[in-house]
Amino acid sequence: MPEPVHAVVAGGGIGGLAAAVALARAGARVTVLERSRRTGDGGGGLVLYPNGVRALDALGAELGARVRAEGHVTAPDEVRAVTDAHGRILAEEPIGAHGLRLGTPQVPVLRSVLQRALHEAAVAAGATVRHGAAVTGGATRGDAARALLADGGHLDGDLLVAADGIHSALRQHLLADGPPRYAGYTSVRGRATGVRMPLPARVVNGRGVQLFISPAAPGTLYWTAKITAPPGAWPAKGPADALRDLRAATADWDPPVVRLLHATAAADTVVTDIHDRDPAPRWTDGRLALLGDAAHPMVPALGQGANMALEDAVVLARAVAAHPGDVPRALAAYERERLPRTSAVVLRSRAQGAVDQGDGAAAELHRNRLVREQGRKDTRTEDIHAWHPDHRREETVDHAART
Ligand SMILES: Cc1cc2nc3c(=O)[nH]c(=O)nc-3n(C[C@H](O)[C@H](O)[C@H](O)COP(=O)(O)OP(=O)(O)OC[C@H]3O[C@@H](n4cnc5c(N)ncnc54)[C@H](O)[C@@H]3O)c2cc1C
Which residue from 15, 308, 40, 277 is spatially nearest to 163, judged by alpha carbons? Predict the structure, then answer.
């Protein structure tokens, strides 16, 4: 019997752990190298759209079932309201009907829940997850890929998956394209339990601030505020002061929103500036492949970063399985399938993010008029949400076989 391929995965976030699950289930030996000392519980939540839920199901039916059970499955009649800061409804987005039409619901979930489910599934599939292992760079030869470690050691494998996030060290090794681009806004986010709101699934459009609120688990709401600001200003405050300043900036907003922010603890608050990058010309170099935010960091305006990372993981493992004994060809097929789709989503997210901020009176009017006339964006992103793990697979395999 041939030796199983050894995949070394740098980064144990959503993308890296999903790749570990997919590759291990496809028969690979997998080692995940994660810089932090333990799997993070990361503050708030995120929305898995139908495409991400389908990717999760493809990683393992029980994984999809677990995240549905621990997250919030959007009900068929559920609506997400878009309001102005004072609670006046600008539009209603029928997110339940949207899921029905696509055959798969949206599932908002706490990051900690998704991360834990992926971690446990990776270990159950036979992957090894090494914490406290920071990757500083990589090297690829004809027949091997090497991850270089901060402690001076290294780990060799047949392929090296760079899933080390937006500030990826391995991306710099491959592309040397410098730091990511600041989008012009920061994100303060958190979660609260036991808060009841009349419109629990909601987007609040303020001037230079947009607040997204969603149920993410039974009794738990998460929220994300995107705030137009100079780079570094809000992260420098730290979570407690950022939360205080956000509460002050929104003190005259709709009372249920004010209560939600006051019910959030500083310990559950995360502050980061938002960045993205221009689409990359390539993601692979023989036995090295970028995945997730390392490959295609995008602003969260369409909520697709993690969804795309889950899709990447499914496609990568299928490409590796379809090209036994030929890792470079498998990675080339993966790049060919994933790069065009994710590049388009990066650019659409960037455009949507610029409109969403409504920074200044004219921009605020423009954004709110668009929302009134066209509704919110989810109905215009059905092409993104319609992704199915089996739709492009044969094409990729066939195309790769011809080259
Ligand atoms: C405010 C906000 C809201 C969002 N909302 C959504 C949403 O609703 N839906 C959605 O799909 N996406 C959303 N996203 C995007 C999503 O969070 C990311 O796209 C996703 O987390 C990317 O996963 P990743 O595994 O590629 O990177 P990360 O989650 O960043 O994971 C990278 C991992 O690599 C580790 N690492 C880093 N460097 C090294 C190193 N040198 N060596 C070893 N390990 C290393 C890190 O510790 C981390 O564990 C949102 C993002 C933000 C900021």
Answer: 15
Angstrom distance (rounded) from CA 266 to CA 239: 6
- Average pLDDT on 33-37 reads 95
Ligand 1 nearest-atom number relative to CA 295: 26
Q: Which of 129, 161, 164 to mutate to test the pocket of ligand 1 (most atoms within 8 A of CB)?
A: 164
Going by alpha carbons, the residue nearest to atom 15 of ligand 1 is: 305
pTM of structure: 0.95
Q: Which of 317, 341, 352, 344 is nearest to 331 (CA)?
A: 317
- CB distance 144 to ligand 1 below 6 Å: no
CA of 252 from ligand 1 middle (Å) equals 33
- Over residues 371-377, the mean pLDDT reads 78
Where do the domains of the chain lie, and which CATH numbers do they carry? 6-180+276-402 (3.50.50.60)
Quick one: pLDDT band at residue 39, thresholds 50, 70, 90? low
> What is the Å distance from ligand 1's center to 370 Cα?
30
Structure confidence at residue 379 as a pLDDT band (50, 70, 90): low
Kindly give the distance from the C-alpha atom of residue 342 to the centroid of ligand 1, in angstroms, as a whole number: 15
Relative to the CA of 42, which ligand 1 atom is closest? 29
Cα of 34 from ligand 1 centre, angstroms? 12
Residues 6+ apart with CB under 8 A from 75: 96
Residue 393's Cβ-count burial label (10 Å; 0-12, 13-18, 19+) is middle
How many angstroms separate the CA atoms of 75 and 79, rounded? 9
- Using a 6 Å cutoff on CB, does residue 50 contact ligand 1? no
Amino acid 395: pLDDT = 41
- According to DSSP, the residues that pair with 204 across neighbouring strands are 83, 211
pLDDT value, residue 376: 66
Q: Torsion over CA of 86, 189, 123 and 135, rounded to 10 degrees? A: 150
Q: How far apart are CA 315 and CA 302, in angstroms?
A: 21
